[in-house]
Design goal:
alpha+beta; Butyryl-CoA Dehydrogenase, subunit A, domain 2; Butyryl-CoA Dehydrogenase, subunit A, domain 3; four-stranded mixed beta sheet; globular
Protein backbone atom coordinates (compact mmCIF):
# COMPACT_ATOMS: atom_id res chain seq x y z
CA UNK A 1 0.00 0.00 0.00
CA UNK A 2 1.35 3.43 -0.97
CA UNK A 3 2.32 6.05 1.59
CA UNK A 4 -0.17 8.90 1.31
CA UNK A 5 1.80 11.37 3.40
CA UNK A 6 2.84 14.60 1.69
CA UNK A 7 6.42 15.69 2.45
CA UNK A 8 7.27 19.11 3.79
CA UNK A 9 7.72 21.40 0.75
CA UNK A 10 11.11 22.89 0.07
CA UNK A 11 11.49 26.53 1.12
CA UNK A 12 13.05 28.77 -1.48
CA UNK A 13 14.36 32.23 -0.60
CA UNK A 14 15.13 32.75 -4.28
CA UNK A 15 11.51 31.94 -5.06
CA UNK A 16 10.21 34.53 -2.64
CA UNK A 17 12.47 37.17 -4.20
CA UNK A 18 11.13 36.13 -7.58
CA UNK A 19 7.61 36.66 -6.28
CA UNK A 20 8.34 40.36 -5.84
CA UNK A 21 9.93 40.59 -9.29
CA UNK A 22 6.94 38.91 -10.96
CA UNK A 23 4.49 41.24 -9.23
CA UNK A 24 6.47 44.27 -10.38
CA UNK A 25 6.56 42.91 -13.92
CA UNK A 26 2.80 42.33 -13.90
CA UNK A 27 2.16 45.82 -12.54
CA UNK A 28 4.11 47.25 -15.49
CA UNK A 29 2.57 44.93 -18.09
CA UNK A 30 0.25 46.88 -20.37
CA UNK A 31 -1.58 43.94 -21.85
CA UNK A 32 -5.11 42.95 -20.82
CA UNK A 33 -5.93 40.64 -17.96
CA UNK A 34 -7.85 37.70 -19.28
CA UNK A 35 -11.53 38.62 -18.99
CA UNK A 36 -12.51 35.02 -18.31
CA UNK A 37 -10.88 35.12 -14.86
CA UNK A 38 -8.94 31.97 -15.71
CA UNK A 39 -5.48 31.25 -17.09
CA UNK A 40 -6.85 30.69 -20.61
CA UNK A 41 -5.70 33.91 -22.28
CA UNK A 42 -3.60 33.24 -25.40
CA UNK A 43 -1.07 36.06 -25.85
CA UNK A 44 2.18 35.26 -27.74
CA UNK A 45 3.68 38.66 -26.86
CA UNK A 46 3.18 38.01 -23.16
CA UNK A 47 4.65 34.49 -23.42
CA UNK A 48 7.72 35.83 -25.22
CA UNK A 49 8.18 38.51 -22.53
CA UNK A 50 8.17 35.80 -19.85
CA UNK A 51 10.65 33.77 -21.86
CA UNK A 52 13.03 36.73 -22.12
CA UNK A 53 13.06 36.91 -18.32
CA UNK A 54 13.80 33.22 -17.93
CA UNK A 55 10.38 32.51 -16.41
CA UNK A 56 9.41 29.69 -18.77
CA UNK A 57 11.08 26.32 -18.40
CA UNK A 58 12.60 27.47 -15.14
CA UNK A 59 13.45 23.91 -14.17
CA UNK A 60 14.92 23.00 -17.57
CA UNK A 61 18.70 22.49 -17.70
CA UNK A 62 20.57 25.61 -18.83
CA UNK A 63 22.04 23.77 -21.82
CA UNK A 64 18.50 23.46 -23.18
CA UNK A 65 17.51 27.07 -22.55
CA UNK A 66 16.32 26.66 -18.97
CA UNK A 67 16.68 29.27 -16.28
CA UNK A 68 18.67 27.10 -13.91
CA UNK A 69 16.01 27.33 -11.21
CA UNK A 70 14.17 24.56 -9.34
CA UNK A 71 10.53 23.50 -9.36
CA UNK A 72 9.76 25.55 -6.25
CA UNK A 73 10.86 28.74 -8.01
CA UNK A 74 8.68 27.77 -10.97
CA UNK A 75 5.78 27.20 -8.58
CA UNK A 76 6.11 30.74 -7.20
CA UNK A 77 6.11 32.34 -10.65
CA UNK A 78 3.16 30.25 -11.83
CA UNK A 79 1.22 31.06 -8.68
CA UNK A 80 1.69 34.81 -9.22
CA UNK A 81 0.70 34.59 -12.88
CA UNK A 82 -2.46 32.68 -12.00
CA UNK A 83 -3.36 35.13 -9.25
CA UNK A 84 -3.04 38.00 -11.72
CA UNK A 85 -5.11 36.20 -14.38
CA UNK A 86 -2.20 36.56 -16.77
CA UNK A 87 -2.69 35.38 -20.39
CA UNK A 88 -0.29 32.44 -20.41
CA UNK A 89 -2.10 29.62 -22.16
CA UNK A 90 -0.01 29.97 -25.34
CA UNK A 91 3.04 28.41 -23.67
CA UNK A 92 1.41 26.69 -20.68
CA UNK A 93 1.08 23.13 -21.99
CA UNK A 94 4.55 23.11 -23.55
CA UNK A 95 6.19 24.43 -20.40
CA UNK A 96 4.16 22.35 -17.94
CA UNK A 97 4.44 18.90 -19.50
CA UNK A 98 5.75 18.70 -23.07
CA UNK A 99 9.17 20.12 -22.27
CA UNK A 100 9.68 17.84 -19.23
CA UNK A 101 8.53 14.85 -21.32
CA UNK A 102 11.06 15.57 -24.07
CA UNK A 103 13.80 16.11 -21.52
CA UNK A 104 13.09 12.76 -19.90
CA UNK A 105 12.27 10.56 -22.89
CA UNK A 106 13.12 12.48 -26.06
CA UNK A 107 16.14 12.04 -28.29
CA UNK A 108 18.94 14.60 -28.39
CA UNK A 109 17.66 16.27 -31.56
CA UNK A 110 14.27 16.85 -29.93
CA UNK A 111 15.87 18.23 -26.80
CA UNK A 112 18.31 20.51 -28.61
CA UNK A 113 15.89 21.86 -31.22
CA UNK A 114 12.58 22.06 -29.38
CA UNK A 115 13.15 22.56 -25.65
CA UNK A 116 15.00 25.91 -26.02
CA UNK A 117 12.13 27.17 -28.21
CA UNK A 118 9.69 26.28 -25.42
CA UNK A 119 11.82 28.15 -22.88
CA UNK A 120 11.83 31.22 -25.12
CA UNK A 121 8.02 31.40 -25.06
CA UNK A 122 7.83 31.05 -28.83
CA UNK A 123 6.88 27.38 -29.18
CA UNK A 124 3.41 26.05 -28.28
CA UNK A 125 2.20 22.47 -27.81
CA UNK A 126 -1.06 20.55 -27.74
CA UNK A 127 -1.65 17.02 -26.44
CA UNK A 128 -3.23 14.30 -28.60
CA UNK A 129 -4.80 11.86 -26.15
CA UNK A 130 -8.63 11.64 -26.18
CA UNK A 131 -10.38 10.18 -29.21
CA UNK A 132 -13.93 10.34 -30.62
CA UNK A 133 -16.29 7.70 -29.22
CA UNK A 134 -13.80 6.63 -26.54
CA UNK A 135 -14.93 8.73 -23.59
CA UNK A 136 -12.28 8.68 -20.87
CA UNK A 137 -10.94 5.25 -21.80
CA UNK A 138 -7.48 6.35 -22.86
CA UNK A 139 -6.27 2.78 -23.31
CA UNK A 140 -8.77 2.30 -26.16
CA UNK A 141 -6.61 4.39 -28.52
CA UNK A 142 -7.37 3.58 -32.16
CA UNK A 143 -5.22 6.16 -33.94
CA UNK A 144 -2.53 4.01 -35.52
CA UNK A 145 1.07 4.61 -36.58
CA UNK A 146 2.22 2.01 -39.11
CA UNK A 147 5.94 1.47 -39.68
CA UNK A 148 7.09 2.35 -43.21
CA UNK A 149 10.48 3.04 -44.79
CA UNK A 150 12.11 5.95 -42.97
CA UNK A 151 9.31 6.55 -40.53
CA UNK A 152 5.66 6.03 -39.61
CA UNK A 153 2.31 6.61 -41.32
CA UNK A 154 -0.42 7.92 -38.99
CA UNK A 155 -4.19 7.62 -39.46
CA UNK A 156 -6.92 8.40 -36.96
CA UNK A 157 -8.43 11.25 -34.95
CA UNK A 158 -8.11 13.06 -31.63
CA UNK A 159 -10.70 15.23 -29.89
CA UNK A 160 -10.89 17.92 -27.19
CA UNK A 161 -7.38 18.93 -28.23
CA UNK A 162 -6.82 22.37 -26.71
CA UNK A 163 -5.37 25.01 -29.07
CA UNK A 164 -4.40 22.48 -31.76
CA UNK A 165 -5.30 25.05 -34.42
CA UNK A 166 -2.68 27.51 -33.17
CA UNK A 167 0.15 25.39 -31.75
CA UNK A 168 3.40 24.32 -33.38
CA UNK A 169 3.63 20.73 -32.13
CA UNK A 170 1.55 17.91 -30.71
CA UNK A 171 2.61 15.09 -28.42
CA UNK A 172 0.63 12.26 -30.01
CA UNK A 173 -0.28 8.96 -28.35
CA UNK A 174 -1.16 6.25 -30.85
CA UNK A 175 -1.07 2.52 -31.33
CA UNK A 176 2.03 1.04 -32.96
CA UNK A 177 1.30 -2.64 -32.23
CA UNK A 178 -1.92 -4.67 -32.29
CA UNK A 179 -4.08 -4.63 -29.17
CA UNK A 180 -3.49 -7.47 -26.74
CA UNK A 181 -4.83 -8.65 -23.39
CA UNK A 182 -2.76 -5.87 -21.82
CA UNK A 183 -4.73 -2.95 -23.23
CA UNK A 184 -2.06 -0.39 -22.38
CA UNK A 185 0.62 -2.25 -24.34
CA UNK A 186 1.61 -1.37 -27.90
CA UNK A 187 1.18 2.41 -27.53
CA UNK A 188 3.82 4.98 -28.48
CA UNK A 189 4.30 8.76 -28.38
CA UNK A 190 5.38 10.97 -31.26
CA UNK A 191 6.47 14.57 -31.68
CA UNK A 192 4.24 15.91 -34.46
CA UNK A 193 4.83 19.14 -36.38
CA UNK A 194 1.31 20.53 -36.79
CA UNK A 195 2.16 21.90 -40.25
CA UNK A 196 2.70 18.36 -41.58
CA UNK A 197 0.52 17.55 -44.64
CA UNK A 198 -2.52 15.40 -43.87
CA UNK A 199 -3.42 17.04 -40.53
CA UNK A 200 -6.81 18.79 -40.31
CA UNK A 201 -8.08 20.75 -37.29
CA UNK A 202 -11.80 21.37 -36.79
CA UNK A 203 -12.58 23.80 -33.98
CA UNK A 204 -15.27 22.97 -31.40
CA UNK A 205 -17.24 25.83 -29.83
CA UNK A 206 -18.11 25.24 -26.17
CA UNK A 207 -21.01 26.51 -24.09
CA UNK A 208 -19.05 29.64 -23.14
CA UNK A 209 -18.59 30.54 -26.79
CA UNK A 210 -14.87 29.72 -26.80
CA UNK A 211 -13.30 27.76 -29.66
CA UNK A 212 -10.20 26.43 -27.91
CA UNK A 213 -11.01 22.74 -28.41
CA UNK A 214 -10.40 20.90 -31.67
CA UNK A 215 -11.07 17.63 -33.40
CA UNK A 216 -7.81 16.72 -35.16
CA UNK A 217 -7.76 14.26 -38.07
CA UNK A 218 -4.70 12.44 -39.41
CA UNK A 219 -4.84 11.08 -42.96
CA UNK A 220 -1.69 9.28 -44.12
CA UNK A 221 0.49 11.66 -42.08
CA UNK A 222 4.15 10.75 -42.49
CA UNK A 223 6.37 11.11 -39.41
CA UNK A 224 10.12 10.48 -39.70
CA UNK A 225 11.80 7.90 -37.49
CA UNK A 226 13.22 10.55 -35.17
CA UNK A 227 9.70 11.81 -34.38
CA UNK A 228 9.29 8.83 -32.04
CA UNK A 229 9.57 9.85 -28.38
CA UNK A 230 11.29 7.30 -26.19
CA UNK A 231 10.82 3.63 -27.02
CA UNK A 232 8.11 2.22 -29.28
CA UNK A 233 5.51 0.40 -27.20
CA UNK A 234 6.25 2.25 -23.97
CA UNK A 235 3.95 5.20 -24.59
CA UNK A 236 1.59 4.34 -21.74
CA UNK A 237 4.31 4.55 -19.11
CA UNK A 238 5.55 7.80 -20.62
CA UNK A 239 2.14 9.47 -20.78
CA UNK A 240 1.26 8.57 -17.19
CA UNK A 241 4.53 10.17 -16.12
CA UNK A 242 3.60 13.27 -18.11
CA UNK A 243 0.16 13.47 -16.47
CA UNK A 244 1.76 13.90 -13.05
CA UNK A 245 2.89 17.35 -14.19
CA UNK A 246 -0.53 18.13 -15.69
CA UNK A 247 -2.52 17.18 -12.61
CA UNK A 248 -0.48 18.51 -9.72
CA UNK A 249 0.11 22.22 -10.32
CA UNK A 250 -1.70 25.30 -8.95
CA UNK A 251 -3.52 25.77 -12.27
CA UNK A 252 -5.70 22.86 -11.13
CA UNK A 253 -7.22 24.84 -8.25
CA UNK A 254 -6.50 28.52 -8.98
CA UNK A 255 -8.10 29.01 -12.39
CA UNK A 256 -11.34 30.35 -10.85
CA UNK A 257 -9.78 32.53 -8.18
CA UNK A 258 -10.44 35.64 -10.26
CA UNK A 259 -14.14 35.25 -9.46
CA UNK A 260 -13.29 34.95 -5.76
CA UNK A 261 -11.20 38.11 -5.99
CA UNK A 262 -14.11 40.03 -7.55
CA UNK A 263 -16.45 38.55 -4.94
CA UNK A 264 -14.25 39.87 -2.12
CA UNK A 265 -14.15 43.31 -3.77
CA UNK A 266 -17.96 43.48 -3.70
CA UNK A 267 -18.10 42.02 -0.21
CA UNK A 268 -15.96 44.88 1.09
CA UNK A 269 -18.81 47.21 0.15
CA UNK A 270 -21.49 44.81 1.43
CA UNK A 271 -19.94 43.07 4.47
CA UNK A 272 -21.77 40.22 6.18
CA UNK A 273 -20.99 37.40 8.58
CA UNK A 274 -22.06 34.88 5.94
CA UNK A 275 -19.64 36.45 3.48
CA UNK A 276 -16.81 36.30 6.02
CA UNK A 277 -17.48 32.59 6.67
CA UNK A 278 -17.50 31.89 2.93
CA UNK A 279 -14.17 33.62 2.38
CA UNK A 280 -12.67 31.74 5.33
CA UNK A 281 -13.87 28.40 3.98
CA UNK A 282 -12.49 29.07 0.50
CA UNK A 283 -9.14 30.28 1.83
CA UNK A 284 -8.83 27.20 4.06
CA UNK A 285 -9.42 24.89 1.09
CA UNK A 286 -7.05 26.88 -1.10
CA UNK A 287 -4.30 26.80 1.53
CA UNK A 288 -4.59 23.03 1.90
CA UNK A 289 -4.45 22.41 -1.84
CA UNK A 290 -1.52 24.78 -2.17
CA UNK A 291 0.44 22.91 0.49
CA UNK A 292 -0.28 19.59 -1.19
CA UNK A 293 0.70 20.89 -4.61
CA UNK A 294 3.95 22.39 -3.35
CA UNK A 295 4.75 19.07 -1.71
CA UNK A 296 4.42 17.28 -5.04
CA UNK A 297 6.95 19.71 -6.51
CA UNK A 298 9.26 18.57 -3.72
CA UNK A 299 8.59 14.91 -4.54
CA UNK A 300 9.35 15.43 -8.23
CA UNK A 301 12.54 17.29 -7.31
CA UNK A 302 13.60 14.31 -5.18
CA UNK A 303 12.62 11.90 -8.01
CA UNK A 304 9.88 10.25 -5.95
CA UNK A 305 6.82 8.67 -7.55
CA UNK A 306 4.01 11.23 -7.30
CA UNK A 307 1.25 9.90 -9.59
CA UNK A 308 -1.09 9.02 -6.73
CA UNK A 309 -0.54 12.33 -4.98
CA UNK A 310 -1.13 14.24 -8.24
CA UNK A 311 -4.44 12.41 -8.73
CA UNK A 312 -5.51 13.44 -5.23
CA UNK A 313 -4.69 17.10 -5.86
CA UNK A 314 -6.48 17.04 -9.21
CA UNK A 315 -9.61 15.41 -7.77
CA UNK A 316 -9.78 17.77 -4.78
CA UNK A 317 -9.01 20.71 -7.06
CA UNK A 318 -11.92 19.68 -9.32
CA UNK A 319 -14.30 19.70 -6.38
CA UNK A 320 -12.98 23.03 -5.11
CA UNK A 321 -13.27 24.83 -8.44
CA UNK A 322 -16.75 23.49 -9.11
CA UNK A 323 -17.83 24.51 -5.62
CA UNK A 324 -16.77 28.14 -6.10
CA UNK A 325 -19.63 29.49 -8.28
CA UNK A 326 -22.39 27.80 -6.27
CA UNK A 327 -20.85 28.94 -2.98
CA UNK A 328 -20.56 32.55 -4.11
CA UNK A 329 -24.10 32.69 -5.47
CA UNK A 330 -25.51 31.80 -2.05
CA UNK A 331 -23.98 34.95 -0.54
CA UNK A 332 -24.36 37.68 -3.16
CA UNK A 333 -27.57 37.74 -5.16
CA UNK A 334 -25.94 38.89 -8.38
CA UNK A 335 -27.18 37.91 -11.82
CA UNK A 336 -24.30 36.32 -13.77
CA UNK A 337 -23.90 38.05 -17.13
CA UNK A 338 -20.86 37.40 -19.38
CA UNK A 339 -20.81 40.95 -20.78
CA UNK A 340 -21.83 42.79 -17.63
CA UNK A 341 -20.06 46.02 -16.66
CA UNK A 342 -19.84 44.74 -13.08
CA UNK A 343 -16.62 42.71 -12.95
CA UNK A 344 -18.03 40.24 -10.41
CA UNK A 345 -21.12 39.51 -12.49
CA UNK A 346 -18.98 38.81 -15.59
CA UNK A 347 -16.50 36.66 -13.67
CA UNK A 348 -19.29 34.67 -12.02
CA UNK A 349 -20.94 33.98 -15.38
CA UNK A 350 -17.66 32.77 -16.78
CA UNK A 351 -16.86 30.30 -14.00
CA UNK A 352 -20.42 28.94 -14.11
CA UNK A 353 -19.92 28.14 -17.79
CA UNK A 354 -16.42 26.69 -17.33
CA UNK A 355 -16.87 24.81 -14.04
CA UNK A 356 -18.27 21.61 -15.63
CA UNK A 357 -15.05 21.16 -17.63
CA UNK A 358 -12.93 21.03 -14.46
CA UNK A 359 -13.88 17.41 -13.87
CA UNK A 360 -12.92 16.38 -17.42
CA UNK A 361 -9.64 18.06 -18.33
CA UNK A 362 -6.58 16.15 -17.17
CA UNK A 363 -8.66 13.10 -16.24
CA UNK A 364 -12.26 12.66 -15.12
CA UNK A 365 -13.18 12.22 -11.47
CA UNK A 366 -13.95 8.56 -12.12
CA UNK A 367 -10.51 7.97 -13.67
CA UNK A 368 -8.72 9.82 -10.88
CA UNK A 369 -10.60 7.98 -8.14
CA UNK A 370 -9.89 4.69 -9.89
CA UNK A 371 -6.16 5.52 -9.75
CA UNK A 372 -6.45 6.36 -6.06
CA UNK A 373 -8.40 3.21 -5.25
CA UNK A 374 -5.98 0.98 -7.15
CA UNK A 375 -2.98 2.61 -5.45
CA UNK A 376 -4.54 1.89 -2.07
CA UNK A 377 -5.18 -1.74 -2.98
CA UNK A 378 -8.96 -1.25 -3.01
CA UNK A 379 -9.48 -2.59 -6.53
Amino acid sequence: MNNLSFPRPLHSEIGERLRVEVREFLDDWHGDRHAAATFGGFDPEFSEALGQRGWIGMGFPKRYGGGGYGLMERFVVLEELLAARAPMFAHAVAERQSGPLLLRFGNERQREEIVPQIASGKCYFCIGLSEPNSGSDLASVRTRATKVDGGWLVNGAKIWTSSAHRTHYMILLCRTAPASEVRQAGLSQFLVDMSTPGITCRQIVNIAGDADFNEVHFQDVFLPDDALIGVAGEGWQQVTSELTFERSGPDRFMSHMGAVEEFVAVLKQQPSSEGARTVGRLVAHLSTLRRMSRSIATMITEEQEAGLHAALVKDLGNCFEQEIPETLRLVLQTEPEPDASLAYSAALANVILHAPSCSIRGGTKEVLRGIIAKSLGLR
